[in-house]
Structures are given as structure tokens and as C-alpha cells.
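User: quick one - fold this with adenosine-5'-triphosphate bound?
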Amino acid sequence: MAVSSAPGKVYLFGEHAVVYGEPAVPCAIERRATVTVERRDDDALRVQADDLSLDGFTVEYGGPRDGHPDIDVPQPLIRAAMGYVDGAIEQVRDVTGESDVGFDVTIESEIPLGAGLGSSAAVVVAAIDAATRELGLTLETEELADRAFQTEYAVQEGQASRADTFCSATGGAVRVEGDDCRSLEAPSLPFVIGFDGGAGETGELVAGVRSLREEYDFAAQTVETVGDLVREGEAALEAGDIEEVGRLMNFNHGLLSALGVSARSLETMVWAARDAGALGAKLTGAGGGGCIVALDPTPEAETALRFTPGCEDAFRAELAEEGVKRLE
Ligand SMILES: Nc1ncnc2c1ncn2[C@@H]1O[C@H](COP(=O)(O)OP(=O)(O)OP(=O)(O)O)[C@@H](O)[C@H]1O
Ligand SMILES: C[C@@](O)(CCO)CC(=O)[O-]
Ligand SMILES: [Mg+2]
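Assistant: Sure. C-alpha cells for the protein plus adenosine-5'-triphosphate:
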């Protein structure tokens, strides 16, 4: 048996634009997905993921003597739900050369699904790491990050950056621009997260930005402007100027709204945090619903978010210095 965990992340700057080659700065947070993997005697894959629920399916069966219920779950729903784990195991079979190895996989996660905190990347990184180690192979962090990226790239149909998976594999604050991935020195950042209890579909949101870019030059320019902003943000981080980091996060949120990936609940939480004195607040990750991230060294923004209608949970998040953790 092998057990690995990997952290989720928030974006200080640059989500979406990073898909088109602009730089981005995600930071790993101490909320983890833990994956336990045990090799099977056959080539089957059995996944236990208690946090994953499939809405709206029907089961037909002929009563106790029939024994074989026919479960009617729409294919796209299954692909969306299982694609990341299936893809991770495909990468493991490929890198180890054991093309028909089977596994029992158990996923436990503290990261809400589809909420912008990088649950997919954390699950994929932890699953690849645990399953390769179960077969006696320990991957270097770069290779692990690359295999995890290939998984997200395939599931998101060619519309994914290396940002989430590199950040989850290495931990800390990172900078990703195209294939160039590196760790960043960052000052201590007082993250506060607000969660609306909902989710957005990463693939669909990325596709929405893509078509806006194709339709309007000014949308393509907005994406480039995000890149300019990220470069300013890096300078502010290097100078340890977190007030400037906050101002730039506000600006980045405005550009993401213009690109159509915000939501009423995200706007409400962003403004609740700002009104409470946060240095900055923006949506994080793909958007459409899910989480915002604010910077606030005081307890005010977290308290305000707790009392904001539509905010289901508010919590502080520490930077995760360590990426993948090998637990067993
Ligand atoms: N605990 C889990 N168990 C099983 N699968 C999970 C789990 N957490 C995430 N996943 C997989 O990841 C998918 C969600 O990934 P998606 O990229 O849409 O959101 P996210 O990674 O949480 O947010 P973002 O990419 O915006 O940061 C789920 O549909 C599921 O396939
Ligand atoms: C929206 C996006 O930029 C971040 C999702 O967390 C997609 C990606 O980078 O793959
Ligand atoms: Mg994701």
C-alpha cells in the first residue's frame, strides 16, 4: 500500500490567461487530497471517492432475483467525475510500463470540488505519486508535475496550463509561463477564503474565455493585460509590498469579470471582503462559482464573510511549503 497527499492552491494572479501563455502565480495551501493505492491481482480499477457525488442518475433493476442493476448515468457526467483518476492511472501504466496493472484507489480530500482550489490537480498528483510508488518507482518532482499536467490536459481537452499541477507537486508560491515552471520567494501572505458552496466546470469556463478571445480583439488584449499585471505583481511580491499585491488582485478580479468567469456569489464575497478592509480580493481558479481569495492580516474579512448571505464557509489558509507528501 502507498499513501500520498498533495495540496490545493489559490491564484494570486493569472488564472485563465495562463492557458494562453501568460504568466501566473498560484500558491499552494494547507488543504490536501490524500490518495491511498493498493495493487490488485487483476487489471481492474476500483475507486472509492466519498466526496464525489453524481447528481441525477436512475437505477433500474428487476428486484432481488435480478442481481444486476442497470445504472443510467449520463456518459459526460461519468467522464467528468472519473476522468482525472482514470487519466492519472493511465499515466502510471505508461511511465512504469505495466500496462495492465490494476489498483484499489481511495480518495479523501479537504478540498471542495470544482471550487477553484485545485482539487483536480491535487487528486491527480497524489494518485500518480502513490500508484507509481506502489509499483516501486519514485518519480522526481518535475516528472510527477509533468505527468499530472498531461492528465489535466487530456481531461480538459487540450485547454490546461501547467500551473495547478506544478504548484500542487512542488508546494509554495510558484510562477508558471508556458512550459517554464519555477518556485518563487514570497512574503508571508494572510489568505482568507470565502466559499459559496457551489462549483464551476473548469473545461466549460476555459472554453468560454477561448471563444471570447476569438470573437473580440479586445478580449485577447484583456488576456494580455492580465499578463502585464502578473509581471507587476511579481515585482510587488519580490519587494514584499503586500498592499500593492492586494491592489493588483482587485484589478485582476475586474479583468476576470470582464472575461465572463465571475458569478453573483463571487462578486458578493469579493465586495464583502473589500468592505471589511481586505488588502485585495478576487475569484480564484476557473470561477463560475466556488471560492474567492482575499488578503487580510486582521480577522475582519473572515468575520464579514461568515455573515455574508451566499457565503457557506470562510476560513484562513496557510501557504503549504511542501507539495506532494509521501505518507506511507
Ligand atoms: N475528492 C475527490 N474525489 C474524486 N475526484 C475528485 C475529488 N476532488 C476532485 N476530483 C476530480 O476533480 C474534478 C474537479 O476538477 P475541476 O478542475 O473542475 O475543479 P477544481 O480543480 O476543484 O477547481 P480549479 O481547477 O478551478 O482550481 C471532479 O469532477 C473530480 O473528477
Ligand atoms: C482556469 C485555469 O487557468 C486554472 C484552473 O484552476 C485553467 C488552467 O490553468 O488549466
Ligand atoms: Mg482543476
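One thing worth noting: The first strand starts at residue 2 and ends at 13.
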